[in-house]
Amino acid sequence: MKKKRKVFGFLLLLAFLIGIAGVIFLMSVVNSVSKVAGRAGEKLALTDTLRYSLRLYRNLDDLSKDTYFSDLNEKKFTIEQSNSAFDVCQKLEAEALVSSASSMCDFLIYKGFDRSLSPGTYTISNGLNLMEIASFIADGSNRDKQFTIFEGWRLEEIAEMLDQYSFQFSGQEFLAFAYSPNEEIQTQLALPQGRSLEGFISPGFYSLKPTTTLNEFITESVNRFVNTLVELKPGQNSQSISLTNYEVLTLASIIQRETLAEEEMSLIASVLYNRLAAGMKLETDPTVQYGIGYVPAQETWWKTPLTFDDLSTISEYNTYQVYGLPPGPICSPGKEAFKAAFVPAETGYFFFRAKCDGSLTHNFATTYEEHLENGCE
Fold first, then answer.
1. Longest distance between any two alpha carbons in the chain, whole Å
2. Which residue, 230, 263, 281, sits at the end of a domain?
């Protein structure tokens, strides 16, 4: 009986020592993980803290391994509304932003970040480690600011839109730069002396990090313009080849304001080219609207309808009064309008006017008499 008691006592002592060793080991694991990953989230239960500390301990190297992706300085990552934390981890690994989806998920849960992921697009910098990426995407304030610059907007309209997104620069600062661009931008765009960036701020969808600077925004937008120019210019035809890129852009901006129907843009372009070749005035309403500017009563930069007095307005942009092209673009044209200016249709049309069916498309005419017949009764 005494022998059995001794054995039992020994086993009890052994179990106690093993338990102590286990506690010491767990404390060591928790301490080691906390030194690398910081303290666990406040809402994480003790059992889960131990569990995920053990999981992270086995893969500590994954946490501090920096991620580098090709030659890019930044990479976009999007969390969809339907994405779970597990989905996010899998996408991060699939897009080579982290080396281990399981380690990412373990860290997200350990820190409590799995409950604070917000849908949106995040601009992730090169050279961040898993923990830095997790912390970044768990903070909704880091989400990109997303907006659209619509085709046909002038600089002031773009400035008004930018003010709605609280970037590190204001719409007024944007306008100040756009009307007095630096020498680098002037050279890149072959901008005529004294001209603004009207027409060069590319329309389209933008997804920009909240810390985007004015220079970064201008650079991205202008680069988009240059890419479009490089794509379209080789296709220009005999009508546009005699014009400078700036003159073609000016025509494209007029085309953009004259119609939203892409299928008739090349026809409108042909009318403008035919009138220029014949020495006729362009007589386009959008140029008059641009010269008039903002109309408080209508709360718009594009007055409509125009009166006969408006058509007599003294302005270098009023193509009812001056011959040839206006001094520069009147808005930011889209790609199709730019393409139409480079490759106008070859027609005998000299006139166009809105159809009477409310379609916002146009009838085209060769003679003035035919043009009058296209009027609405």
1. 127
2. 230
